[in-house]
Every structure is written in C-alpha cells, then in structure tokens.
Amino acid sequence: MKRFLHYALAVLTALSVFSCGKDDPVTEPVNDAPKDMTLSLSSLNVPVEGGSYSLTVTAPSRPTVSNPSSQWVTVTDGTYSNYKITYGITVSANAAYEERTATLTVNSGSLSKTVSLRQAAAEKPVDPDPDPDPESEEGISKTLVTKDATDQAKALYAYLYSIYGQKTLSSVMADVNWNHRIADQVNQMTGEYPAMNCYDFIHIYVPANNWINYNDLKPVTEWAEAGGIVSLMWHFNVPVNASTTPGADGSGVTCTPTQTSFRARNVFTSSTWENKWFYQEMDKVAAVLLALQEKGIAAIWRPFHEGAGNATLKSGASWGTAWFWWGYDGAEIYKKLWVTMFDYFASKGIKNLIWVWTTQNYNGDAAQYNQDKDWYPGKDYVDIVARDLYGQDAAANVREFTEIQKAYPGKMVTLGECGKNGNIPYASVGEAWNAGAKWSWFMPWYGESLPDTAWWKSAMGHSAVVSRSEVKIQ
Predict the structure, then answer these.
(1) Which of 424, 462, 459 is nearest to 442 (CA)?
(2) Residues of the domain holding 279
C-alpha cells in the first residue's frame, strides 16, 4: 500500500563557551557578540519528492559547514548576516524512504559540533508504470530496457531501485542448476533464507532433458511463492565440434578453442552448424522463460557473463584472451551476440527479464587489466552492471564498485559473483558495505568457493542485508 512519507529533521542545540578573533573580513563581530554557538533546524514535514530546506547557525565568528558522509543530503554555502549564516540543504527524492543519518559538521573558530539529521523509516511506493523519464536525480535509469515489460518485472526493478545504496540483497548460486539446495543450507546456518536464488541453464543442452527437467518449474515457482527473488543465468554449452553431440553425461563445453571449434562469428551465418545450435538452444531457454512469465514470475537475467575474460590484459601476453566461446571472437562479435539474444527473446514475447551485464577485467585487477567498456552491449540493452570478485578484501570491493559506478553512471551496480579464491576468503559483507561498496546484491558461488557458516552469519546479521523474509515487492 502506498503511504505518504514524511520525516522530521530534529532541532539540536549545542552550547560551548570559547573566545574568538576576527574571522570575517567583511562583518566583524562586535564586543557583545554571542559567546555560544547555536545550531538550529526547524522540524519539517518532508514530502516524498524530497526538497530544499535550510539550517541556521548563530556563532561569534563565521562558521563553515561540511557534509562528508551523506549521499542523500546536499549542503551548499549560505548567506552570512550579522552572526547568523543560513545554509541550503537539499534532500534527494530517491533517498527519502529508508532510515539513515547524515552528519553536518559545523566549525567556528576552535569549536566543532555535529547535527544528526535522521530520516524516518518508511516503505517506498512502487509505481507499476515508472516515470517515462529514463533518468532519476542520481542518474540511475528508472525504466527497464525491455519495452512493455511485465508488471512483475517493473515491480521487481522498482524494488531494486528503491533500496539501491541503502540495502543489499543476499543471494546464492544454485548448486549448479535447477534447485535451491544452497539457499536451504544458508537457512540452516543462519535461520534466514537469502533474498535471491540464482538458477543456471547450464545443462539444458542435454538431449531430451533426461538429466534435468527444466520444464519442471517447481524448483523456481516454490521459491517465488515463498517470497524469494528469482535470478537466472546461462553457462551456454556447445558441442566440441560439428560432428559431436553433447551427451547426457554433461560433455558440453563453454570454453575457447582449447575445448571447442564452435565460433561465435559463425552464429550469424544461417548455413553454419553454429547458427543452428545457437537458435535451437535459445528456443529451449525461451520456452522456460515464457512458462515462468505465464506464471507471473519475473527474473534477473545474467547471460554471456565475463565476456572479456583475460582479453583486456595490459601486457599483451598470449594468455590474454577470453575464456568463454562467446567472448573469444572479440568485443564486436560479443556485443552482437548479446543484442541478437535480446532481440530474439523480444520477438518471442519474453518481457519478464531484467538484463544484467558482467563487466570483466579479471577479478577487478586494474593494475594488470584495462576496463572492458568496448564489450558493453549499450545502455539500451542492459539494466544493471555486475562485477565478479573472488578472494577480494573490502578495499578492493570499494575500488571496483566506485570504478564501475563512474564508468556506467546510468546503471545500478551489483556483485554478480563472489566467494573464496582458493584459501583466500572473500571480504565480510558488512566491512565492504560500511567501506562504501554498496552493491545491489551479492552472490557467493557454490562448491569450494562457498563461504563458511561464520561468514554467512555475519552477512545475514548485518543491518543493510536483506533476507527473503524482508523482501517487499509491490
């Protein structure tokens, strides 16, 4: 239910006695200048749209105000008159929905006082038909790249948008394919389910689905019915060569010419075996996506992940190549694959997806790898930009998050994959978040990369982390 939101900016008064000199060359305090510094902010009812307000400071010398720690309150220099200076305060509309605290530090002479501005917690109303204006105040796109997206997809995206920068969704990768066993394990460890479960179409190539039946939607529908967010990805397997058929033993491959002669550049020539395989496999996945759409389930969709692989290696060494077939023929072919899938799914009537592209300069190592912006499919084909990081500390998370935000200012940024790198643990979610890595969600991988119980308890206990029971999509 939509609610009108309003929060109170508290009135705080700080008193302290001190002496001062001639700090203002224009208006010099007279002998009977006030001995105390008073900070004053009237209580206000702030509308949903945010707004501009003012903070008045009375001091014996001209004070200054800084606002170093807030993204939702902007402070500008004010007008000085006698012993008062009035500062402008602008409250971001998108930030007016979660409980947060901004700190305004007022300095006058040797005195420093702080004012805490606390925002009341409230639910953000979800607009089933978002504003057609593609950019918000923060520059993040407010609409999906899919035209005429389903109401469920719009609502899911609106929810992600509403909590971005304030909360992070907990997520797990399914144990290789079509289940939620890892999510169940997290619940056993912590007493909470992660908010999101990611399923992989990795084995859909197996003939007649005699290993895994992807047409059995129960593993997905029961997760969605329990309030969980559905995420989907695809390790797109191909045959070793034109004369082989992947078998039920899982002998398909995704990698470069060391494993397969499949060439992405041949996908666009109708007479090739690559073209035939590409479209027949897309048809299998499309059928499942449409079945989920008919059941009212929207999904976060992350295909063709880590496309650049090692191709952006600065040294130019021979091992600086993509590691998946969809990236091996270079950036232009990669982008063409992405757009082809996007358009083909649209032609099938698939409108329930939120498209996530994974930027890749191997594990975020900017010292050895260039950014892969040449591989970006474009703002009209991507809703969210992800990074995959393993065994990285909080400082590395902040560096990567900041770098991606700067490179793709119109998109939300998320942690597509994370986990241990051998014996090197991945950062504590709380430490990374508190340091400034405000990922939309985090998703540990399964198997040896899966973090341990202590890591999960710490993550699920952090105030910014959303569990399944806390998801609120309207």
Answers:
(1) 459
(2) 151-470
